[in-house]
Amino acid sequence: MKVTRKDLEKSQVELLVELSVADFAPYIEKGAQKLSEEVKIEGFRPGKVPYDILKQKVGEMSILEQAAHLAIHKTIDATIDENIKDQEVAGQPRVEVSKLAPGNPMEYKIIMAVLPEIKIGKYKDLGIKQEEAKVDEKDIQKALNDVAESRAKESITADPIKSGDKAIIDLDMFLDKVPAEDGQARDLTVLIGKDYFVPGFDKSLIGAKKGEEINFSLPFPADYHQKTFAGKMVDFKVKIKEVYNREIPELSDDLARGFGLKKLEDLKKFFADNMAHRLEHQNEQKSEIAMLDKILEKSNFGDLPESLIQNEAELIMAELEQEIVKQGGKFEDYLQSIGKERQQLMMELLPQAVKRVKSALMLREVAKAEDLKISVEEIDKKIEELKIQYKADANVAKMIKEPGYRGYLGNILANQKVLKKLREWNIG
């Protein structure tokens, strides 16, 4: 068997594998035997069909194709191991049969991406400062006001709409007197005074009564998220279906007791602690990103395989879609709201994908340099924790049993260990 290596651009390698007529002959025999066990031919038992009879029945190329499949399956792993010794294959190799004909050598190509050479920049003593988590008193007050509003008592009224009321409306929007696409809504809730939807919209409802239909026009901001309306004058037709007075409770100990607390100060502290925790987490993320950016800035990478970048972009897209669905939305609606096709968004995600791939490769190199490894015991412990945490979730239980899950979890834990060390060395 002869193997010729060719280094391609973008960290790709092609191995041309040639099996001589003599090398390929045993696979032809095995391929014919396998087909003879599967094909029914009158007068012959399965597996006992002579080669010439089988060739007449299924065609010689069918036998050769079966033989090629067996030859590739048998030789591919050893071929890659012997010819890609000091490099690591990224992703799944692509295989193409390049020569297959009776009485000739058999050739196939293995085309694969390999991880590029990486030279890590300085990754210790970078002096990254993490911001202190300071909660603004205005944010706490807003949270208290929002909670009080959520406990408002509502009563139907025939009076004209005023600030603070809630209105249920049917809405139709028009562009140049033509009904706008996705410009209709039914039984829409509007809180008057909350600058709902577009500036000036809810104030235009003030003075209207239940059963009335009103018409008005408003300009949409140039940066409005729905490109259909951005920067345009839009005509509105609104039918008032119901009006509610809203009586908002005072900020008092009674309000706090509704949340199982004794005093208003306890509720205020609850919000302050939660905001501080959330802000602390945000600051940790910001300082971590700044740290990784600084390391990447001083690191050198060979050509990144396009397959790695594409796979990462698809992963980012899937994460985004999952998050939108989790919030009750539809990804198609999101794409429409930002005025982009799926493929267009995918292209815009490529720079982010490149950065994520580089970060992952850099973390691997730091782990090697510092001999940071994850033990079998650490993986076992994490799996047991997940089993307890998600014991009622059948999907998680099934996922944990998947053959590749331990390796996947090991990679996550390894990255977490490296990041923890990098934070200790660099962030104060």
TrEMBL record:
Subcellular location as annotated: Cytoplasm
Spans traversing the lipid bilayer: none
Keywords: Cell cycle, Cell division, Chaperone, Cytoplasm, Isomerase, Rotamase
SUPFAM superfamilies: FKBP-like (SSF54534), Triger factor/SurA peptide-binding domain-like (SSF109998), Trigger factor ribosome-binding domain (SSF102735)
Catalytic activity, as annotated: [protein]-peptidylproline (omega=180) = [protein]-peptidylproline (omega=0)
Taxonomic superkingdom: Bacteria
EC annotation from Swiss-Prot or TrEMBL: 5.2.1.8
GO cellular component, one term: cytoplasm
Span of domain PPIase FKBP-type: 161-240
A Pfam family it matches: Trigger_C
Keyword Transmembrane helix: no
UniProt domain Trigger factor C-terminal: residue ranges: 264-422
GO molecular function: peptidyl-prolyl cis-trans isomerase activity; protein folding chaperone; ribosome binding
GO BP annotations listed: 'de novo' cotranslational protein folding; cell division; protein transport; protein unfolding
The Trigger factor ribosome-binding bacterial domain, residue ranges: 1-146
UniProt function note: Involved in protein export. Acts as a chaperone by maintaining the newly synthesized protein in an open conformation. Functions as a peptidyl-prolyl cis-trans isomerase.
Family, per entry: Belongs to the FKBP-type PPIase family. Tig subfamily.
UniProt name for this protein: Trigger factor
Species whose genome carries this gene: Candidatus Falkowbacteria bacterium CG_4_10_14_0_2_um_filter_41_15
